[in-house]
Design brief:
This protein has one domain: Rossmann fold (3-Layer(aba) Sandwich), CATH 3.40.50.1820. Helix content is 32%, strand content 15%. A 6-stranded parallel beta sheet has the order 2-1-3-4-5-6, with helices on both faces.
Length: 177
Amino acid sequence: MTDFIHLPGIGNSGEAHWQSRWELSDPRIRRFDPASWDQPDLADWIAALDRAVGATTTPPVLVAHSLACLLVAHWQKQTAAPVKGALLVAVPDPRSPAFPAEAAAFASVPEERFRFPSLIVVSTNDPYASVPYVQARAGQWGSDLVNIGAKGHINSASNLGDWPEGSQILMEFDARI
């Protein structure tokens, strides 16, 4: 049975966010725990992800949202820890005017192909990244890409509720990797 590690973006994921809702319904999901959600420190976030992966009994699937997608790119370059795959939702563009200044350390995004399977979920009207930017990242990282249409930043403001479409995407990805 697969373990899942949720990696929320800056500010964490509140109660209305699909990540938080999924965690309530599935005991296999745990959330990584950096020192600060609001003042993200890249080294600390990498260490927190290392701890979370190290605590699993089998190679986990990482489920990253927003800034945490960039974390996965940095982390996978620095570690050989076993991971089954990564679902990357709403990959942000550090050059976007919406990109938070507090996350500047994440902005030099590695372009290397991931050493594990990955799938990116993109929205056509995400204020943090354009579809062409996300397509370019998918090509660099060797990620498959799913476009779910106009869903904003695919967060609680998108009013997705439990986001059953996302859960289905994750389960299908997990089944094929």
